[in-house]
Amino acid sequence: MPWNSLMERTMKEIHEQEKTIDDIVGALKRVPIHPRVVTAIKYAHALGCELRIVSDANLFFIETILEHLGLRNYFSEINTNPGFMDEQGRLRISPYREQIRKSSHGCTLCPPNMCKGLIIERIQATIAKEVGNKKLIYLGDGAGDYCPSLKLTELDYVMPRMNFPVWELISRNPILIKAEIHEWSDGEDLEHVLLQIVEGLLNRQIQLLCWQQQQLIASSRRLLLQQLHSLQGLSQYLSREYRF
Questions:
Q1: Quick check: is 243 in a domain?
Q2: Residue 92 lies in a domain
Q3: pLDDT tens, 207-229?
Q4: 186 is in an annotated binding site
Q5: SS3 track for the chain
Q6: For the chain, does the N or the C end have fewer beta carbons within 10 angstroms?
C-alpha cells in the first residue's frame, strides 16, 4: 500500500479513537530532530542555498514540524501530498496534486502517487532558465529517493543516508549515478558533509570570480597601454607636422 494511502487510513483510525488535530500536532512537535540538522539548514540558507522539499509525507506534517522548529521560511518550495482537516476535524491525506490527474506517471521505481524523479526534472528545467550555473544537492534515505538520484547530472551531488534503502540501491550499481556521491549517517554527519559541499562550491565560485577579475584587469591594462602608445604616436606626428 502506498505511504499516503496508509497514512490516510491511519488518520481515519486515529479520528475514530477520538484523537483530535491538537493531539496530532502535539505528537509531531515531539518528533526528535537532531539539532545539527536544524543548524545545517540555517547555515546552508545563510550561504545562499535555495532549499526545497520533495517528500512523500504530507503538507500538514511537514509544515507543523517546520513551524515548530522555526524553519518554515527557510524553504522556497514544498512538494508533497496535501494534508488538510475536513469538516469533521479529521486529517485527510490526498495524493500529490501535480500527478493525480494522470492514471500513471510511468515510473516503475516510484509509488503511484508520486514520482520524485519527475519533480526533480521540473526543478532542473526551472533553474536552467535562471542566471548562473546552479547545482543540485539531493539528500534522501528512502527507496523513493533513488529515482531522483538517477536524474542528477555530473555537476550535482547526492547524499544518501548510509544503511538506508536509497543507499543500498545506489550501492548495488553506483556507476548508474552521474552525480557525486557523499554518504552520511546521522544529523552531525549530515551537517558536516552538506556544509563541506556547499563551502567547497562557494570557494570555487570565489576563485573563479577572482580569476575573472584578474583577467579583466589584465585586459584593461593592455587596452590602456595600447591607447597610451597610440597617443604617443599621435603626439610625435603632430610635433613633426606643426613645428613653429
A1: no
A2: yes
A3: 556 655 666 665 666 676 666 66
A4: no
A5: CCHHHHHHHHHHHHHHCCCCHHHHHHHHHCCCCCHHHHHHHHHHHHCCCCEEEEEEEEHHHHHHHHHHHCCHHHEEEEEEECEEECCCCCEEECCCCCCCCCCCCCCCCCCCCCCHHHHHHHHHHHHHCCCCCCCCEEEECCHHHHHHHHHCCCCCEEEEECCCHHHHHHHHCHHHCCCEECCECCHHHHHHHHHHHHHHHHHHHHHHHHHHHHHHHHHHHHHHHHHHHHHHHHHHHHHHHCCC
A6: C
Grid cell of 59 as nine digits: 503538507
Q: Contact, 31 vs 65, CB < 8 A?
A: yes
Q: Judge whether 91 lies within some domain.
A: yes
Angle of helix 21-29 relative to helix 59-69, nearest 10 degrees, comes to 50
| Strand-pair partners of 229 | none
- The pLDDT tens digits for 121-179 are 999 999 988 867 789 999 999 999 999 999 999 999 999 999 999 999 999 999 999 99
Residue labelled with grid coordinates 606643426: 242
In this structure, is residue 62 part of a structural domain?
A: yes
Question: Using only C-alpha atoms, what is the Rg of the chain?
Answer: 27
Q: How far apart are CA 12 and CA 232, in angstroms?
A: 89
- How far from 126 is each of 120, 121, 129, 134, 143, CA to CA, in Å? 10, 9, 6, 11, 25
Residue with cell 518550495: 77
Parent domain of 50: 1-97
